[in-house]
């Protein structure tokens, strides 16, 4: 391992997570440019990497469906988050009922899923609720399910050594840490997984989930190769009163997705449950609801320009030992059937006629060895821009770790930021904005080109 590399089993800080250009929210944003809810949904939700769910039993296409995602992510230099949701009798017949017809079929399906992962990095959220929610299973059925989950982890690692597999940890208001650890041990976490996930499709605070995850890891003996990830997609205001979990009102987006958690036990804060997709009460499970997305985005603490908060240092608390009377469900999301498109990374060599641009580059926040920046691109030319690529060179040691509303690639000090499709068109006199988080410090860049044309800098 090279100096400064992340410990085995963890995700390196600064890992760029994949933003799916075919997600439901991105498609809605593109189709509704005049909707008053669109700007904040675009800025705070569509710009963020979220899990892509594989929840439809399609044995003949699952390998190609997965390869479509992983190939696009690899081309973008990003790491996809894939949620596997096909275990038989999933959700115990609740709002997200379904799954493979039997465990033998599931084992085959998972092997075909794994065949599409390729050699690149990927994050696998393996079967939400499958370990925490077993009330509908007999002791033998539970044992058989756990054995199948262990085989699934082994199959994924065998086919894709760079995949990180996380098993169902439930959440902090469900099973006790010791009980969840016992179940995870039976499901092969010590041999065939890289850790556990918590809070998927739920609303518990990040502080409680981090403490709970550490309690589970402790109950497992704190193996050096096991860590946790936490779903923070809708926990900005914590849980609803009375433990309501099915499309409750008054919730907010939580910490934006990042692997920069500041805690060696926590690999990432992820958006596993896509914000705005129904749990099954406000709409059919997995359906994108713009009103719900707008409410979550409006209640968020800020735009995605604030560096991630440091995980809590308060002592862990012991979660309750009795699960809620109605366990949470995870809505299915249909995997993409067409390959995501990748925006161009090389600007045209000849600027278009009537081209011109003005750039506003501002440091939004800064801390030791890190910062966030807001960039506004104004089209000062006489013609509309349809597809943009902004290039600049950092004057210091800055490195981009995450971007929103643009795809950012970097080679040395040279950076290229390109549109994400839904924000490709910039009319004459119009503007578009994006932001990014970076490491390092130093002076701001002073020269930019847009599609090969020099820009003025304000």
Automatic annotation (TrEMBL):
Transmembrane segments: none
Enzyme class: hydrolase
InterPro entries assigned to the protein according to its UniProt record, in alphabetical order: Beta_cellobiohydrolase (IPR016288), Beta_cellobiohydrolase_sf (IPR036434), CBD2 (IPR001919), CBM2/CBM3_carb-bd_dom_sf (IPR008965), CBM2_carb-bd_dom_sf (IPR012291), Glyco_hydro_6_CS (IPR001524)
SMART domains on file: CBD_II
Family indicated by similarity: Belongs to the glycosyl hydrolase family 6.
Pfam families: CBM_2, Glyco_hydro_6
PANTHER family in alphabetical order: 1,4-BETA-D-GLUCAN CELLOBIOHYDROLASE C-RELATED, PTHR34876
Name the record gives this protein: Glucanase
Domain CBM2 as annotated: residue spans: 350-458
Alphabetized UniProt keyword annotations: Carbohydrate metabolism, Cellulose degradation, Disulfide bond, Glycosidase, Hydrolase, Polysaccharide degradation, Signal
Catalytic-site annotation from UniProt: 129
Region (Disordered): 298-355
Compositional bias annotation for Pro residues: 305-351
Keyword Mitochondrion found: no
Enzyme Commission number, as recorded: 3.2.1.-
């Amino acid at each position: 391992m090279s100096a400064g590399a992340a410990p085995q089993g963890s995700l390196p800080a600064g890992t760029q997570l994949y933003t799916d250009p075919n997600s439901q929210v991105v498609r809605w944003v593109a189709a509704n440019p005049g909707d008053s809810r669109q700007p904040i949904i675009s800025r705070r939700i569509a710009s963020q990497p979220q899990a892509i769910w594989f929840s439809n039993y399609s044995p003949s296409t699952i390998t190609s469906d997965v390869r479509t995602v992983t190939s696009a992510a690899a081309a973008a230099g990003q790491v996809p988050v894939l949620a596997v949701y096909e275990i038989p009798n999933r959700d115990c017949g609740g709002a997200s009922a379904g799954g493979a017809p039997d465990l033998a079929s599931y084992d085959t399906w998972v092997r075909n899923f794994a065949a599409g992962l390729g050699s690149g990095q990927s994050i696998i959220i393996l079967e939400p609720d499958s370990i925490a929610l077993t009330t509908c299973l007999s002791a033998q059925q539970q044992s058989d399910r756990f054995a199948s989950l262990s085989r699934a982890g082994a199959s994924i690692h065998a086919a894709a050594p760079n995949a990180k597999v996380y098993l169902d940890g439930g959440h902090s208001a469900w099973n006790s840490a010791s009980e969840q650890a016992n179940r995870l041990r039976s499901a092969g976490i010590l041999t065939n997984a890289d850790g556990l996930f918590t809070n998927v499709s739920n609303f518990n605070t990040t502080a409680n989930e981090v403490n709970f995850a550490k309690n589970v890891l402790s109950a497992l003996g704190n193996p050096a190769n096991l860590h946790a990830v936490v779903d923070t997609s809708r926990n900005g205001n914590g849980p609803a009163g009375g433990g309501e979990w099915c499309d409750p009102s008054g919730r907010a987006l939580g910490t934006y997705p990042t692997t920069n958690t500041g805690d060696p036990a926590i690999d990432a804060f992820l958006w596993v449950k896509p914000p705005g997709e129904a749990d099954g009460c406000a709409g059919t499970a997995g359906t994108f609801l713009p009103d719900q997305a707008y409410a979550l985005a409006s209640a968020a603490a800020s735009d995605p320009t604030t560096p991630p908060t440091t995980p809590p240092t308060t002592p862990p608390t012991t979660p309750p030992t009795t699960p809620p009377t109605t366990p949470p469900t995870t809505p299915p999301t249909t995997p993409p059937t067409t390959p995501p498109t990748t925006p161009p990374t090389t600007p045209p060599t000849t600027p278009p006629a009537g081209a011109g641009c003005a750039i506003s580059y501002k440091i939004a926040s800064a801390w030791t060895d890190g910062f966030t920046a807001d960039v506004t691109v104004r089209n000062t030319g006489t013609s509309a821009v349809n597809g943009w690529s902004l290039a600049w060179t950092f004057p210091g040691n800055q490195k981009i770790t995450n971007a929103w509303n643009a795809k950012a690639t970097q080679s040395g000090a040279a950076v290229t930021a390109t549109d994400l499709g839904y924000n490709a068109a910039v009319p004459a006199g119009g503007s578009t904005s994006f932001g990014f988080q970076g490491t390092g410090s130093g002076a701001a860049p002073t020269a930019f080109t847009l599609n090969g044309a020099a820009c003025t800098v304000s």
